[in-house]
Amino acid sequence: MTRVQSGTIVVLLATIALNCAALAGEKTAWRLFVSDHSEPIVNVIDLLKQEKIETYATKAPARLYRSKTGRTVLAVQRGADVVTAIDSGISFDDHGDHGDIKVKAPRLLGLEIAGKQPSHVVEYGGEIAIFFDGEGRARIASERMILESKSVLRETAPGMPHHGVAVASDRYTLLSEPNVKNSDALPIGIKIVDKSGAQIGGVHSCPDLHGEATSGNVLVFSCATGLLVASMDGSAPQVKHLPYAAALPSGKTTTMLGGRGLQYFLGNYGADKVVLMEPTEAEPFRLVTLPMRRVDFSVDPVRAKFAYIFTEDGRLHRLDVIAGKLDGSLRVTEPYSMDGHWNDPRPRLAVAGDKIAVTDPARGVVSLVDAMSLTKAGEIRLGGTPFNIVAVGGSGQTHDD
Amino acid sequence: MIKTLRTVVLAGLVSLSPLAAGAVSTKKLNVVASFSIIGDFARHVGGDRIDVRSLVGANGDPHVYEPRPADVRTIAAADIVLVNGLQFEGFLRRLIEASGTKAPVVELTKGVQPLKSTEQAHNRERSGHHHHHGDYDPHAWQAVPNARIYVKNIVDAFCSIDPPGCTTYETNAKAYDATLSVLDEEIRATIARIPPHKRVVITAHDAFGYFAHEYGLTFLAPEGVSTDAEAPASDIASLIRQIKRDKIAAIFVENITDPRLVQRIAAETGSKVGGELYSDALSRPDGPAATYVDMMKHNASTIRKAIAPDVP
Ligand SMILES: [Zn+2]
Fold first, then answer.
1. Ligand 1 centroid to B195 CA: how many Å?
2. Nearest by CB to A262, which of B68, B133, B159?
3. Among residues A109, A391, B185, B243, which one has the fewest Cβ atoms lying within 10 Å of its Cβ?
4. CA A336 – CA A348 distance, rounded (Å)
């Protein structure tokens, strides 16, 4: 026993000493990008100073998407048929056992990706695919090209207009197959095309396809009947249908998130339930009933076992993904009823380090909640109707060299 | 982040204490191994006193493994967690943190003389900076003398949390160690039959540094020490030139990596793929590398047959 301890302690201390010699300092930076429900603007907040540092004009109110690296924020402006890009100013350089952080001012990139009715944005590997509903096709760019303000890498062939989705890897693109009888209906499945646009195999059936997410190397789409689970590692993408368990009540997932740090998926299931999905498990679906109808949810990329769900009574709930139970909640805003239009201004969530940021459009503020204690941690006044929100940042090391 | 894990590992070891007396005699020790090769070692030492579960199973790639909520529950229920160390299990910290486990986490490479990672892999990720990180090649089990150290460490760890079983663990380990000693001799004899100037092998990722060092071969790999990074085209081009120039005939795919890169290199150099080597995971039970001993024998004989088919 003594041997076990001392041997390891020596190794640990040696490793720590080795690291410290190479380090010059540690820095933390977090920024919130917040769009407005009715104004064409994106506000940028420095979370540590809790103040607005920048406001960018867009052409229409934007839905925001952050790249996996956090280097880029895309502003999807459906009302103006365009997607623009912002360099978040925060970047990391991975060095295996630590990351270097670089913090610069955020800047609006010159790039405009134009097309009719941009909708879903999906990043897989380094490729970002933006689907344009009005053209039934996707435009695909790597994050590096977006940062260099270069025009899109490639686009898929135009198709029948529909509310669809595309996921691109370096070799293949998964594309939604429209319902040819009714373009207003949701897609009926997924097809795979290669770089030349040639279709590989048949259409993988997925009735009422809406919602997709990635977690690690697994990609899922939600259908009325269950999930399509795709893995893109092999020589060609493998796609399997995973039906909803018979024990689940009738319902379906239409919005999904992928776990970060842990491989799982979280979806809505009816208005007042969510479902935890682990495609490789013997029992892949775990249903969690919420006290009220769901407004928004978000996974915690740092504390991998937690996700957060905001309900219409103005409360934020913490979901323990391992136990499959809500383990705490906090009243954050006044109630926001889910009656009315689906796109009415209601709170949206983003996790930023040890804070959860909640937009409160009725009061024009972003509320902050401490993720560990689930207590209020201040608010930032923006005015207007703050709506979509993404967080970018983290901690890293800085070097003098 | 990493600092947190270190603290957890440390705390885990400090709390290494005998299980409540009595509990052990009725309940099997719940052992979690990070990947299949360690699981096999643990099974040989623990025998029927333990239940073993490997997080990354047969043919799985520990370098890019994505832990699942089910793994968190597995770790939370563990009495002890056995890992390789040398920064091999990148997924471990998240699991330990999420599980809140108090079980000791034992790094089995302690006492192993670690080899430096190859320069090729380093130049790629450093991009001008100079850092100390991931300096050591984690694939230490690929040399049998190191496997014998892993086994000793497992005995120590099991004995400290289950003293009544210690005699059994020591007896089991002694028998297994004798098997490993014979295995070591066999591999040396197999490699000895290959003419020294022909002992150059191409694999997908640098998993065989310890094998090469111990048994006197040279391994070249386009992917570097981790399977995580794509090999840059320039590295592949220079590897292809080298294969053509040196007339290297032995090119192998690995059970855990995509075979396409290796197949492309074989095609471009007009060489034949000499078979499949098992690097970071065992095969399924009906495969040629269901145990560590089978895996090492399979690798040595596959290499020998490809390079020197005419030698018996
Ligand atoms: Zn490896």
1. 27
2. B68
3. B185
4. 11
By three-state DSSP, how is residue A301 classified? coil
E strand segments, B78-124: 80-83, 105-107
| Number of Cα atoms under 13 Å in the Cβ half of residue A119 | 20
Instruction: Using CA atoms of B263, B267, B271, B274 in order, give the dihedral in degrees to the nearest 10.
Output: 20
Query: Which residues lie across from A386 on neighbouring strands?
Result: A36
Q: How far does the CA of residue A261 sit from the closest CA of chain B (Å)?
A: 7
Query: At A160, is the secondary structure helix, strand, or coil?
Result: coil
Nearest chain A CA: its distance from B70 CA (Å): 7
Q: How many residues does this entry show for chain A?
A: 401
Report the C-alpha gap between A83 and A140 in whole angstroms: 12
Separation CA B198–CA B201 (nearest Å)? 9
A113: Cβ–Cβ under 8 A, 6 or more apart, which residues?
A: A82, A83, A84, A85, A130, A139, A141, A152
Dig out the tokens for A101 from the structure: 């952080």
Q: From CA B107, how far away is CA A9, in angstroms rounded?
A: 11
At B236 the pLDDT is 80
Q: List residues bridging with A308 in a β-sheet.
A: A298, A318
Per-position DSSP letters for A325-368, written without gaps between them: EEEEEEE-SS---S-S-TTS----EEEETTEEEEEETTTTEEEE
pLDDT-based confidence at residue A231 (cuts at 50, 70, 90): confident
CB A171 within 8 A of CB A193: no
Closest CA to A73 of A81, A63, A60, A61: A63
Closest chain A residue by Cα to residue B100: A305
Question: What does each C-alpha distance from B83 to A94, A108, A110, B141, B151 come to in angstroms?
Answer: 23, 46, 48, 12, 12
What strand order describes the sheet that includes A212-215?
A212-215, A218-222, A226-231, A238-243
Asked if A280's CB is within 8 angstroms of B64's CB, the reply is: no
Cβ neighbours of B232 (radius 10 Å): 12
Query: Per-residue pLDDT tens for B46-65?
Result: 999 999 999 999 988 888 88
Please tell me if residue A261 touches chain B, with a CB cutoff of 8 Å. Answer: yes
Burial label for A108, CB within 10 Å (0-12, 13-18, 19+), is middle
Compare CB distances from A305 to B72, B106, B157 and report the shortest one's residue: B72
Q: What are phi and psi of A291, to 5 degrees?
A: -70, -25
Measure A20 CA to nearest chain B CA, in Å: 9
Q: What is the pTM of this model?
A: 0.83
How large is the ipTM?
0.78
Chain A hits for B106, Cβ within 8 Å: 4, 8
Closest CA relative to residue B124, chosen from A347, A95, A380: A95
Residue B77's CB is within 10 A of a number of other CB atoms, namely: 13
Under a CB-based contact definition with an 8 Å cutoff, are residues B261 and B223 in contact?
Answer: yes
Number of H helices, E strands in chain B: 12, 8
CA of B63 to the centre of ligand 1 (A): 6
Q: Ligand 1 centroid vs B111 CA: distance in angstroms? A: 20
Instruction: Report CB contact under 8 Å: A262, B69.
Output: yes
Q: Does A282 touch chain B (CB under 8 A)?
A: no
User: What is the Cα–Cα distance from B177 to B147, expressed in whole angstroms?
Assistant: 9
